[in-house]
């Protein structure tokens, strides 16, 4: 058992959903979603395009009201911190601000002085490997570096839950792999639990403690959670593990991406 798993406390919980139903204009997209997320746990949400992954993410962080059911996130106040933050597919940086100022932006409204915000922005930049270039402008960074700034900005507010919506899908394969490895590393150094949406099954098995599979929406029915798979592979070098391929294949068959072996 690795350290993160050992540290997980079965009773502690930072995010809960109970029989959640979501939809738009009277049309249900997703229903019967139940979830409990422990501190520092990493859950990936996978499923076919249009199944409702991003919709669920937006509802879990509270941006989208539920049609039915309950959602709870631990919002008990902590100094200089926010309950949650989000990393998007595109980094959404302000081009006219230096990257340290972009990261500091998320710290506004927390009662910190400007100097304190600028100082606090440095640690997360170091965490994502950009500590030596805080004064650069976003346009002088590669796509991967810009996404690292987006991650640093989300980490700067010390969230209890970090929501990530396909954060690596716009990157080239090599950069994507590098950032995946960095996220595995980063987890050892952050207190945040992570909810990670991806359509990449390998990525989900590589990164997560649990993978929630959404599906069953064929024929216009609302989607639901069709399975939640515990990933028990050691976090180190998962790609090379003998069972990695089998777990990926199992999830792919659940989603219907590949036929079941006869
Ligand atoms: N604002 C909206 N108004 C109406 N329908 C919406 C809205 N947002 C999403 N939907 C619908 O809800 C369903 C789920 O969309 P969502 O973006 O959550 O899927 P997804 O699984 O994240 O897809 P993808 O992998 O392609 O990003 C889709 O049918 C989509 O058209």
UniProtKB/TrEMBL annotation:
InterPro entries hit by this protein: AAA+_ATPase (IPR003593), ABC_transporter-like_ATP-bd (IPR003439), ABC_transporter-like_CS (IPR017871), ABC_transporter_ATP-bind (IPR050166), P-loop_NTPase (IPR027417)
Sequence ranges assigned to domain ABC transporter in this UniProt record: 15-241
Statement: the UniProt record of this protein carries the keyword Membrane: no
Protein keywords: ATP-binding, Nucleotide-binding, Transport
Pfam families the UniProt entry points to: ABC_tran
Taxonomic superkingdom: Bacteria
Cited SMART domains: AAA
GO molecular function, one term: ATP binding
Record-linked SUPFAM superfamilies: P-loop containing nucleoside triphosphate hydrolases
Similarity comment: family membership: Belongs to the ABC transporter superfamily.
Protein name per Swiss-Prot or TrEMBL: ABC transporter ATP-binding protein
Originating species: Halomonas litopenaei
Lineage: Bacteria, Pseudomonadati, Pseudomonadota, Gammaproteobacteria, Oceanospirillales
């Amino acid at each position: 058992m690795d350290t993160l798993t050992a540290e997980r406390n079965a009773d502690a919980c930072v995010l809960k959903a109970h029989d959640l139903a979501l939809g738009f204009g009277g049309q249900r997209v997703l229903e019967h979603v139940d979830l409990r997320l422990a501190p520092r746990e990493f859950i990936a949400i996978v499923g076919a395009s249009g199944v409702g992954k991003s919709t669920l993410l937006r509802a879990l962080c509270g941006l989208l009201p539920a049609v039915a059911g309950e959602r709870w996130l631990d919002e008990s106040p902590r100094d200089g911190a926010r309950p949650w933050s989000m990393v998007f597919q595109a980094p959404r940086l302000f081009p006219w601000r230096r990257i340290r100022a972009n990261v500091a932006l998320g710290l506004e409204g927390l009662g910190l002085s400007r100097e304190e915000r600028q100082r606090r922005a440095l640690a997360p930049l170091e965490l994502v490997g950009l500590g030596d270039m805080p004064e650069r402008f976003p346009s002088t960074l590669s796509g991967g570096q810009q996404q690292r700034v987006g991650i640093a900005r989300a980490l700067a507010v010390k969230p209890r839950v970090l929501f990530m919506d396909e954060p690596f899908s716009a990157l080239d394969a090599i950069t994507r792999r590098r950032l995946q490895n960095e996220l595995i590393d980063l987890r050892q150094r952050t207190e945040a639990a992570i909810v990670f949406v991806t359509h990449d099954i390998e990525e989900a098995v590589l990164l997560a403690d649990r993978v929630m599979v959404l599906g069953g929406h064929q024929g216009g029915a609302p989607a639901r959670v069709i399975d939640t798979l515990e990933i028990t592979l050691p976090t180190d070098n998962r790609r090379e593990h003998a069972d990695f391929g089998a777990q990926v294949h199992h999830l792919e068959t659940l989603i219907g991406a590949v036929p079941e072996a006869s």
